[in-house]
Structure formats: structure tokens, C-alpha cells
UniProtKB/TrEMBL annotation:
Protein name: ATP-binding protein
Source species, domain of life: Bacteria
Stretches assigned to the DUF4143 domain: 217-365
Organism this protein belongs to: Treponema peruense
Gene Ontology molecular function: ATP binding
Pfam family, one: AAA_14
Alphabetized InterPro entries for the sequence: AAA_14, DUF4143, P-loop_NTPase
Span of domain AAA: 41-163
Protein keywords: ATP-binding, Nucleotide-binding
Amino acid sequence: MEEKLIEEALAEQKEEFALKLKTDFCKRREESLVDLNSSLAQVVIGVRRSGKSTMCTNILKSGGILFGYVNFDDERLSNLKAEDLNLVLETLYKIYGDFNHLFIDEIQNISEWYLFVNRLIRQGMHILITGSNAKLLSGELATHLTGRHMQTELFPFSFAEYCACKKINTNSTTTKNRAFLRATFDDYLKDGGFPELLTEKRKQTYINSLVRNILKNDIEKRYSIKYKAAFEQLADHLLNNVPCAINYAELQNTFKLKSAHTAENYVQYLKNAYLIQGLHKYSNKSKIRVRAEKAYPVDVALMNNRENAFAGENLGWRLESIVYIELLRRYKPLEYDVYYYDENRSECDFILCKGKSVECLIQVSYDIANSKTLRRELNGLENASKATGCKKLLLLTYADEQQIEQNGLQIEVLPVWKWCVN
């Protein structure tokens, strides 16, 4: 590739990044997981537009270090090959001067990029990387960098971060502030946490464009999908029905796919690109944990802000999805596992585990005013408690807050908005 074009692109990127460094962005919880002084490549992955590069900007700004920056999500750099990357490095030194940290944005756009990164790590360069494809990054980094990387997953804004961006106090317990918090949660429940949606008026257009870009560019091109229309219909079907159990044979028949294995591959691609998150069934049998799985959206914005979407009408599903992503956000970095419980027609939405120890059982219900609904939710918690031995029970709702005793078990009832900011 022509050296002049590379220099032009990198120089403009430096100017753009300098403006970002002067901007105050919302602090993300995951910033503490990234160690700029580590000899391991620091990898931040997640769904497109979740704020990965912005979070890395915050980290670099507070780090007080010398660094270079390159964003490969730039059409001027789209034809780069692995052999061109040394010229990119040389140009970066020319533009930035000496540096010992390199921030590489959307690195998955360059084939065999890992050879370049591997060489820099051996030379002592501190590497910070972002990307939008889980299989590409975690799979290839583990293979080619032989464990010399640390991975951080970034989801769209949590409710606490959403409040911070809207200048809503999450610590005050005054009547007025509680009202502000609940009103803000109503917005979050409807619009989700993609950072740019806070200021974007045409939300459906934004999400439509995001989803289509992920399907067509991150998945169909990457995996050379042959039956594109069927794949996109399957993706829309899942996003319209989440949270839902995944039945590969049913998906094969519905979309006339070649096999259930093809359906399984398609679902895996959606998970790789972070459009959906899987949740496995709790069981003492490994094969049941592996096969039985539910799908959740990575953000509730995907449930309603799309053409012909209807999953967003069910507020209980939306609450459940918010809770699951918050559990992943909080506990996955601490090496916890999350499952669901389903035995003998009794269900519990989430089981939080640390190794073999079951730490907490969580049920989610939008409204428990109906005695039949309340009884179902409490019985699900009680049966899961008997099966796992766990006594820490939590029932999350839209608005209720109380303590309930059932057959010697103490069950805490909290509104989801309050649990999210605690």
C-alpha cells in the first residue's frame, strides 16, 4: 500500500483522537480490569458501538503514558495486508515520536494481525486492542499468542452508567431523586444502553443499521454464509423471541436449513458477534449444561428498535434481559458462572455459581400483584433452593420492595432499578 496514504490516514486519526482525549466520557466499570503496565496484550471485546474505543480513550487519558494509535475501521486502510503492518508501525513512530504503548482499534479487519502483535509483545511493547468478534479475538489470540493476553468484555451501558451520563444521582434516597431514578429506568427499559442512543433521535434507524452491519459485515463476510436470507431471518426471529430456549432442530425446519448443525453454527456466529448471549441450564450432568441453552439479547434496544420487531412489548422479558446482562457484567470478571434452573415444571431464572458453590438464586417478574404469579415465582425459588442448597434468594420486580418468608426461607424482593445501582 502507498506510504503516503497510510501517513495521511494515521495523521488524521491522531487529530481525531486528540479531540477525544479532551472530551469527558462516562467512566466504565471495566476500566479497572485493563492493566496498561502488563506484559500481556490487553484485549477489549464486545458488540459494535458498545463504547470500546471510548473506554480505552479514558484509560489512556488517565494513564499518563506515551502511546501510538491506529484504527483499522478506516476505508483507507481496508486493503492492508499483514506485510504492510511494519510500515504502519514505522509511520506511527514518525507521527507520534517515541512511545511504548500501542492502541489498536478494530484489529480484526486485518488478516494475520496476530503475527504483528506477537512480534511487538516479544519486543516489550504494551498493547491495547479492541475488536467486535469474540471468536476472532479470543480464539486466535489464545492460539497464536500462547496465553499472552488478558481479555475484557464490554457491554453497552449498565443502568448505573446510564444514570451517570444523564447526571442522575444514584446515591440519594430522597423522594424526588427516587422518582428521577424510576423515570430514568423507564427510559433505559425502553431504549437500552447503547451509548450513542442517549442522543440519537432516530433510534430505530440507528439499531437497524447496527444490526445489519453486524450481520452482513461481521458475520456473513467473515464466515462466507451461503444462505444469507435464511440467516438474517433466523437472527431476526431470535431477537424477536428473546429470552427463549434455543431449539436447533426447530430452527432448521423453520428456515429450511440444510441441517440442525447449520442452525447451531448460525446461532454461534450471533453469539460470536455479541448480538445474543447464551445461558445454559443448571445441572450436575455436563451434557445437559452443554446442550440446554437460552438466548438473551446483549441489550434490550435490540428487542424493539428494529423493523418488524415485537419482542419489546413484553416488559417482563425486558426486565429479565437487563438482569442477565447485568449479572454477566458484574460477575463474569470475578469468574462466576450463571445458569437457569428448570426441573419438574419449576423454573428459576438465574443461578449464580462460584465453582461448585451456588451463591444466589434470582427470579425476575415484572409484576407480582397477582397471587398466582407471586406463588409461581416463590415456588420456583423454593424448589431451586431445595435442589441446590442455596438460601440466598432474590426476587426482582419492576416496583416491589419487601421481605417474604416461605416455608422457612427468607426471600428479598427488590425493584430492578434499585438492584442495578446498588
